[in-house]
Each structure stands twice: as C-alpha cells, then as structure tokens.
Batch of 4 targets.
Target 1
Amino acid sequence: ISCDKDDSGIIDPSIPFYQSLAVEYNVTQHVTRIGANFNKKDKEGANLRLPEKGILFNGEIPTFLGMGYYMYMLSKPGLIPVTFTFNRWKNQVYTNQVSINDVLPIGIPDTFLTIHNQKMTIINWEGAPIGEDEFIQVHLTYNGGVYDTNIDLEGTRNIAFHFSNLTSATKGILYLSRVKKLPLQESNGNAGGNIQVSYVQNKEIEFK
C-alpha cells in the first residue's frame, strides 16, 4: 500500500476521512504497538498523509512510514491505554480510546514446543474460544521466511495449519494473537472506520 498524492490539508473539510486504528498488546515483550491509517471518503479511498499533529497517539506524534497497512506507527513500553486524537479541521476533532481490557487474553501452552513441517499442526490455545467479532492469528517468523494464517469461526478453541518449511531453519518465533474488531467511538462524518485491538504472546518454537 502506498500513499496517495492527495494533500489532506487542502481537501474540503466536508469530505470525511475513514479511520483504521490498531493497538497490539504483546504481553511477552511487554510492549504496546499502535497504528493508524486514513482514507479519503471511505475504506476504498486514497491513503492520506495528515498535516503535522493531524493524528496523535496519547498526545505524541507517531512515525509516518508512508507504506504498509498502517502508515502511522508508534511503539511504547508497557501495556498502556491508548487515546487516538484525530484533528481533521479546526473544530473537527475525533477521539477514540483503547485498552488491554478491550480484548480477552490468549496464551500459548507451555507444552507447545514444536511445529511440524509438511504436516498438520494444531494449537489448543489457553483462553476463551473465539467470540463475536474476533479472530485468532498465527504469525511465524524464521530465518528465510514468514508464515501467517488465521481463523474466525466463532466458538472454536484451536487452530490447525499446514506449515511447509523450504529453508534450512530449525526454529522460529511463533506469535499467537487474539484480535478483537471494535467500532469507532467517534467517526468523521459518515466515513466510518474500525479499531482492531490485539492480545499477543510469542515464544521460540522448534521445527520438526
């Protein structure tokens, strides 16, 4: 995803911006990762770069990456509540808040130590089954590759996946996430948007 050449500062204030907001709580690393992206009119609209201080995370100016799903990013130590402050125009300010209490915990069992190569692996996670507007994600990083899969079937208590390691890597880092999709608390006009809040654990895993 790349940034459109539209200058958000000169777009008619009557045109609303779609807000995509995200907070990831990595409880293993004890870090909060915050992201945001803005689109002209609706979800399918052009990606936008806001004027300076157009978006603040807990009063701080985030880093503008200009690429990726969330073009604005900031990482902070701890598992902290987050307030997004979107300054659209002089008197148009929209505030949305997130905390770790907005998503249920998920855990990787202590007994889960290996991922099978070229055959099925099943993770029976610790914590509640998948709830409404939730999904569970497996993200695996290793020397030479990345693997992702997710499941959103409500009531499910495990995730099964078929991993093929075509490298010489013998271990990797498994990230297991519960992601809750929330509505905005304050929308810019009728553009809408969404908030995703994630509870993440990670651990080193061997490949067999």
Target 2
Amino acid sequence: QYHGQRWLALRKINKQGEVSNVAALPISYGNRFSLAVDQQDNVYWVNNAGDGIYKRAPGGEFALFVPFDNAIKVLSGNIGTRDYISTAALAIDRQGALYFEDVGHHVIFKVAQNGDVSHFAGTVLQSGDKDGAPGIGSLPSSDYFPLMIDANDNLYTGGQDAIRRIDTAGVISTPQLGWSSPVLSTFAIGNGVVYGFTAQAVIQTPLP
C-alpha cells in the first residue's frame, strides 16, 4: 500500500506495517492530491494545482505522464472552456486505463495506456443530476469527491446528496441506495458495499 506525504515523498506500507520512503513527489502547491496504483505497481499521482498526472514505474522516479494541456485540447471545440483542469481524483480499471474527473468542466477523462486522452463521461460545462451518455448526462458540481471503481469497472463519483455511477460506455446513472438522504463528506466502495462518511458516523449499504 502506498501513501503520499503531501509535498514530500511517496511512502510504502508493507504487510507488516513498516513504512518506507520510495520516491520524491513532484513539486506542487495544491492542497488536494490523489494516488492510484495499477496491477504492474505503477503509481499515478495528481495534485489539484499541478500541471498534469505523473507516473512512477517500479523502482523509478515520477515523470509527467498526462499534461493537462492535452485534456484541454480535447475540449477545445466547446465554447467557454477554461485553460486549466481541476482534479484530485484518479481511478484505474482492470485493463489499465486511467480516469480522472475535472470538477471545473464537469467531465471525466479516460487515459489509454499510451497516454492518449479522451472525453469519457459528462457534458462539458454543464453540472447537474441528469442521467445519460456523454454529452447528455451531467455530473454534480461538487468539491473534489473521490472517483471509485468496482469489480466490473463501473466508476462512481458524487456530491453531498447523491452518488453517481458511470458504466464502461460512459453512461451516467443514479443508483438507488439503501439509505435516505444523508449529507456526505466523502464515500468509499469495497466488496459490493458503499460506505458513506457523514459528520456523525460512517454508514453503509449494499451496492445495487
């Protein structure tokens, strides 16, 4: 298991609980970041004030893998697009594709293993709760919720009042969960269960 010590080092925790520094993190000044690790033990790192997504191969150092300029170019045909990307959430599917959510443009990008970037889900510059395919469905205007992935490679994101599912074709839906309307600060998914974190408690319900 890996842990990022903000602005300093990537740290690895082994099964015995021993902690070691394995690499220096790229220099950045944001206050939110995310790590993701693929099946080959490549580590991906992003910071909300950075210039892109960085990748570290086993035994190596971090190097820029996806410049955010490449993501901006994907959206360049849309009126009103910004000249920066706002993200601090990563996920990797079983085939090794990387996903990241841009809360400024309200879309999710997909990154192939060769680094090619494509618009995967959501409608550019349209926030909301509409279900549907890319260009139709909309994602919430929320403050850096995590991007989770299940055993079937469905993605999950959300806001304080709802969790959204994005299937492997980029179609957004809103699963009906077995809790009412808690105000979530964040959430996690594991072993077919959704865990919601509120100000008072951690709640859970089966993933439909």
Target 3
Amino acid sequence: PPQYTLFAKNYVQNGEFDPFDDTRRSVFLKSSVTVVSLVVFGTAGIGILQSNLVGLLFSLAALVCFWLFMRRVAGQAAGLLFLFLAAFNYNLLFYGRRPFLEHSLAFFAFLAAVIIMYARRNWLMVLAGASLAVGIFFGKAIGLVLLFPFLCLFVYRYLFNREDLGRSRVTRPVLFAAGFLVVTVIWFFMTYLPSQAQVSGYYGEQA
C-alpha cells in the first residue's frame, strides 16, 4: 500500500511531504507509519523492500508485545503456543510484511496492554493510555473498538488483581484516560482542524 509511505518517500526525495498539496490523505501523512518510514528511508534508502520493512517492524513488534501480554495473563506455555501458531498464520505471513496502518494500531494497542500488565508505578498508565490513542488516531481509526476490551481489562484487574490495591484501582484507569485524552487533543488540533472535511470523510468511510 504505497499511500501509507508515500509522504515519507516524497520528503526524503524532494524535501516536502506533500508537494502536490493533496489534503485528501492528510490522515495518512500524519500517521506513525510516516514517522517510521522516514527513519527507514533515511537510513536504508527508498524502495519496495524498505517500504515492506516498515510493516515488518510494526508486525514483529506487535507480536512481541502480544506475547508478553499472553505470558503475563496465561503463562509462559500459552505465550509460546501463541508464537508457534502465529508462525503458521497465512494472514500474518502475507499481510504482515506490508506497511498497513493496522500494524501500527496493533503495536501501540498491545504495547498499552503490556504496560498495564507489567507497570508497577501508577504514572506509567499515562503512557499506556497515550499509546492506545496513538494507535487509534495516528494508526487506524477502527481501533476505537478496542476501548471496550481495555475497559474489560481494567474491570478485571479492579475485581480480581491483588497487585492493584487501595487507591491504585481507581487511580490507574483515571491516569490511563488522561493519557488517552492528551493524545486525542493533539490529534484534534494537528490532524482534524486543518482538514476537517477530508478527515471526516475518511472516518466516515471507516465507519
């Protein structure tokens, strides 16, 4: 999908992200895939291989994060079983090497889940909330459906996790929401306001 890495390619080649002033794809321009593509293209050159490397980096990082999550929730054996099954999954093998925004969403969402499960300090919940918001607003908007699973995760930890005691059971979700809100506000002023019609049209298609 060249539309996701096109802006980084333009910048490395011409010094401009959008030389044709094509605001229809402003959501693609202001995405985490563009940021990683800049790094990859700037260090390894421009090409199909480098473009696919962007998707591969996100995919592998997402797999590692989900393995860490499964390891914490269900144990070492379940985590290894997940990696074994993922190694033979056709969709992951075929699409995991392409720079789709979904891979960015998966990485940041799983990273948020890992922070929630492993973090001992409450303030790290801000980073977890921010990570999920980055995956949604600077990744793929369909990730809004993940808000419900994360709500269930916090409810589960509130009811059954003995590590979250006292005020931490309330403080952690509040800090998570604060981190999510901060990134949402940044996205609103950075992406939505400058191109309201185009962004609204894009999200309308996603719905």
Target 4
Amino acid sequence: GDMVEGIARKAFEWVFANDPAYQGWSAMFQGKVYFPDWQATGHWDAVITDPSGLKTLYDIKSCHSNKFDYLKKGEKDKKYIGQITFYKMGLAKQGAMIDSTIIAYIDKDTMATFPYVVREEWEQMVAEDYGNLISAWERFGKTQEVPPELAFLPEKERFPYRKNYKTQGGNGLFPEWLCDPRYCVFWKNCKRVVSYWQQNGYEHTEGKV
C-alpha cells in the first residue's frame, strides 16, 4: 500500500512540474496539520490550486480490488472520509481555505484510479467524533469514568453495497471505526471490542473477517 501511494504522489509531482496542460496550476505536497485542543496531528498528500485560485485537497489511498469495486458502487469509507475532512479543517485553522476534497483511491491489483469527492456535511461528523473523544479523555482524567461502548453493526448494514459477504449472511458484527486501537485509548475496557481485535488483527474497514 505505501509503495503504491508513494508512486502516485511522485506521479502527481511530475505532472504538475512538467505537463504544459497544467501551466498556471500550483501544487503543495506532504503537509502537516495539528489540533492542540484535540491532541491530534495528520499528514495530507497534496493541495492543488487551479488558475482561478480554487484549492482541492487530495488524499491518496490504495486498496484491494474488492474494496475498490465496492467504493465505485457507492460504499462510503467513513474512516478515510473523516481523515481527509480532519485535514481540511486543520488547513482552515492554518489559514488555507480548501474548496473541495477528493480521496484518490488506487486499485493495488490493476492500478486503476477512482476519485471520491467528499461532501461538506462530513465536517460536522468529524468535529463531533473528535470532540466526543476529547471530552471522554478529559472525564477519564478527572473521574476515571470510562465512556460507553459504541454499537456494533452487522456487515450488511456497515457495508450495504456488498454482495459477497465476508461473514455468514452478512450478519457478522463490526465495531465503529473509532473503536480501532489506534484511535481509542479506552478500547480495552469494552469486552466486545477486545474480543473482536483478539480474533481479527487487521482493519475492520477492509471487511477481512
């Protein structure tokens, strides 16, 4: 995955430096955002500015063919949508107003590409998610109160566009993306989450169960 994404970034850089069709365009690559209030950082891939001044934020992601097909059919990748929206909000705090955001998906098997345009209403979702996490950390620090466990959903609800389910009848339960140990400091307090990650040592968003 990292190699494919690295090749794509290099291609972006070459195009904007050498292709005459993009004269008057400008590009910045590999930037960082930081939210001290949320104790969170992130690294975005590219900000492209067209001749009229409109800025588009790109995040490059690679995935296997099955997931690529699901995405093209309309399945939403909530984790990555939240991630790029977080970058957009961070850039705004730094004074760089972004006009549109696109996740550039690359099929690792075929190198096909699919641009997913993120809608603005996801910003509120990200603000609420991270705000809830920060509030939970603060309460835990003061009172040792552990936040309630987030609901699991059946695969067929979490991934409504799938036809070939990874779990029996699509009824296998998946945790929220926020329950990933990389994002939640409380995950070990939730019995179902602990059980899930003991059985599945990879990202649930890939549906590999």
